[in-house]
Amino acid sequence: MADTATDDLRDRLLDAMLPNVPFDGWSVNCINHAAKALEIDPALARNALPRGAIDAIALHSTRADQRMVEALAARG
Q1: Is the whole-model pTM more than 0.90?
Q2: What is the mean pLDDT of the chain?
Q3: Count: domains in the chain
Q4: How many whole angstroms from its chain centre is CA 72?
Q5: Residue 17: other Cβ atoms inside 10 A
Q6: Which of 6, 23, 43, 56 is the most buried (most CB within 10 A)?
Q7: What is the band of 1 on the pLDDT scale with cuts at 50, 70, 90?
Q8: Which range of residues forms the domain containing residue 40?
């Protein structure tokens, strides 16, 4: 069963990370900046994204896939 609170935190972290990815890359530093921007303990960010950038990239890819499916469905 999915943990809604953790999923929400992952989404918030990814949203906070995306503006910095062009500068920091998909890195621990980028995750730490996102945690700081969200005013959360970096340990919570590490728990939400235990594989670090791999989890963030996977979430970003899943989101893109979901949006593509929604856009195609809206087109009929």
Answers
A1: no
A2: 95
A3: 1
A4: 23
A5: 26
A6: 56
A7: very low
A8: 4-75
